[in-house]
Automatic annotation (TrEMBL):
This is histidine kinase. Residues 305-528 form the Histidine kinase domain. One of its GO terms (molecular function) is phosphorelay sensor kinase activity. InterPro entries: HATPase_C_sf (IPR036890), HATPase_dom (IPR003594), His_kinase_dom (IPR005467), PAS (IPR000014), PAS-like_dom_sf (IPR035965), sCache_3 (IPR033463), Sensor-like_sf (IPR029151), Sig_transdc_His_kin-like_C (IPR004358). Its EC number is 2.7.13.3. Residues 220-262 form the PAS domain. It holds the Pfam family sCache_3_2. It is a multi-pass membrane protein. Keywords: ATP-binding, Cell membrane, Kinase, Membrane, Nucleotide-binding, Phosphoprotein, Transferase, Transmembrane, Transmembrane helix, Two-component regulatory system. GO terms for cellular component: plasma membrane. The chain crosses the membrane at residues 24-46, 183-201. It is found in: Cell membrane. It catalyses: ATP + protein L-histidine = ADP + protein N-phospho-L-histidine.
Length: 528
């Protein structure tokens, strides 16, 4: 064998075949074995059927000859051979047998196709026939192996002779061989049809498996399975009817799904209902229980692929960052105002009007100190106190007066600082925006009352308030009074009240809306 031939055989090794090629080879092998076995079985069955047909034929002819009066008369004639030999030759020719032998009960032949055998002893078993019973057997006589029948010739109850009729096995074999062409044609047609079907199946498998081999498919499955379990993003595959086809570990954790959800519609409530719409989405922010998720959804084949990223902690950090940014802006504004006031005081002193300078400085200091003393005295939670001071400065810049109720009381560690910032910060932001949009005087009020194991927070503004018909939708993601152009899931608009509702829900509380007043009741000291 040449090196090229060896290389070709190595390349065409079944290990290098794709799954479709291996399946086709396996199917063709199985089909060939089955058809070959069926052909061999059919040949054996045909051989047995031919032998059975030959047995029935010789037995029937033998009885017919034995029951013939001419045979009985010939046996009684002075020269039985002269009478019976012509009759036997004619019957042998007409019945297409190989021999018809009439003999005595002792087995001495009166007839035979070979005249030299007349008078000789019959080769074969005749005991049953002598006893009056027919017999059939395969025996090798003077003409070779044959299927023969031996029956008695009766004259009344007495057996007066025997008749043997036989067909050589070579003749039976010729009949079987005559059937071989039809068997081969049938086998060829079966192979052709089965091969064509296997080829069509292999083409379908090839398209479905992208002509990959079993080892490649196994490695790909192992890789994909490892990625699905290891990736920290939730992954869902949905069909066009909204049924869940695949969900990795992270997606099940984020959405609270179990194994029973596979193969079923994912539902019509909350985020699952949004995903079931089958609309492409890019970096949309949605709420799922107590989590903030970034959702991407895109068509993939005959369904949709969905990715989920958990931004709950990031959203909390973003809220705190917004608060810090607000504090920074407030400090910058206060520094600017303080510089203006300081310049005013210095100018009054330079003009020699010291009394007016002292009065002006004292008045400004008293106003700032009153707000600080009121907030710090009532709100012992430092994060919330800083938030209120920052929001007060922010509101003042926009022409809104933020009033903190004198009896406001927020104990330290009443709620996690992050949740306090989320609840109060978003309510104050919305209140300030509503007050700015309303005619003067523009006011926002904040009050807090602790009663037993609960804390009640109330934020009200001088704005028009919510339409009662919108209250039920106000805490849904994406809803906003600023218009659809601003309330988009991808930008995060319409998320503030939804986050407030989420934080309140975590602490087993409730929210009451009365026009422009939002009242939040939460349990104090209860773990979220």
């Amino acid at each position: 064998m040449t090196p090229v031939t060896v290389a070709y055989i190595a390349y065409m090794s079944p290990r290098r075949w794709s799954l479709a090629q291996q399946l086709l080879g396996l199917q063709l092998t199985v089909i060939t074995v089955l058809v070959t076995g069926t052909l061999a079985g059919a040949y054996v069955q045909a051989d047995r059927a031919s032998l059975d047909a030959a047995r029935q034929k010789v037995l029937g002819i033998a009885w017919t000859v034995a029951d013939s009066p001419s045979v009985r008369d010939g046996l009684a004639a002075p020269d039985p051979t002269a009478v019976l030999q012509p009759l036997a030759d004619r019957l042998n020719r007409d019945a297409e047998t190989d021999f018809v032998v009439v003999m005595t009960t002792g087995g001495i032949r009166y007839t035979h196709p070979d005249p030299r055998q007349i008078g000789g002893h019959f080769l074969g078993n005749i005991d049953d026939a002598v006893a009056g019973r027919p017999l059939t057997e395969t025996y090798t006589g003077t003409l070779g192996a044959s299927m023969r029948a031996v029956v008695p010739v009766r004259d009344g109850e007495r057996v007066v002779g025997l008749v043997s009729v036989g067909i050589r096995l070579t003749s039976v074999a010729q009949q079987v061989r005559a059937r071989i062409p039809s068997l081969l044609v049938t086998a060829a047609l079966a192979l052709l049809l089965a091969g064509a079907g296997s080829w069509l199946v292999s083409r379908w498998v090839r398209r479905q498996t992208h002509d990959l081999g079993p080892a490649q498919l196994a490695r790909m499955y192992e890789f994909y399975d490892a990625v699905l379990h290891a990736v920290r993003e939730g992954l869902l595959l949905l069909d066009r009817q909204g049924r869940l086809l695949l969900a990795n570990d992270e997606a099940r954790r984020l959405l609270g799904l179990d194994e029973s959800a596979l193969g079923r519609p994912i539902g019509a409530e909350g985020l699952l209902g949004v995903l079931a719409e089958g609309v492409p989405r890019t970096d949309e922010i949605h709420l799922a229980g107590d989590r903030v998720l970034v959702v991407n959804q895109a068509p993939a084949g005959a369904g949709m692929v969905v990715t989920l990223r958990d931004h709950t902690d990031l959203q909390a950090l973003t809220g705190e960052l917004d608060s810090v940014r607000g504090f920074t802006e407030s400090l910058r504004a206060q520094a600017h105002e303080a510089a203006n006031r300081l310049h005013t005081v210095l100018s009054l002193i330079e003009l020699g009007r010291t009394a007016e300078a002292i009065e002006f400085a004292g008045a400004e200091l008293a106003v700032a100190q009153r707000l600080t003393d009121r907030v710090v005295g009532a709100v012992r939670e430092p994060v919330l106190a800083a938030l209120l001071l920052g929001k007060a400065a922010q509101a003042a810049e926009r022409g809104v007066e933020l009033e903190v109720a004198p009896d406001a009381e927020v104990p330290e560690a009443a709620l996690p600082p992050g949740d306090l910032v989320t609840i109060v910060g978003n309510l104050l932001d919305n209140a300030i925006d509503a007050a700015v949009a309303a005619p003067p005087p523009r006011r926002v009020s904040f009050s807090a009352i602790r009663h037993g194991g609960s804390l009640t927070l109330r934020v009200a503004d001088s704005g028009p308030g919510l339409d009662p018909a919108d209250v039920s939708r106000a805490f849904e993601r994406g809803w906003s009074t600023k218009g659809a152009a601003h309330a988009t899931a991808s930008t995060g608009r319409g998320l503030g009240l939804a986050l407030v509702g989420q934080a309140v829900h975590r602490h087993g509380g409730d929210i009451e809306v009365d026009g422009s007043a939002f009242t939040v009741r939460v349990a104090v000291g209860v773990p979220a």
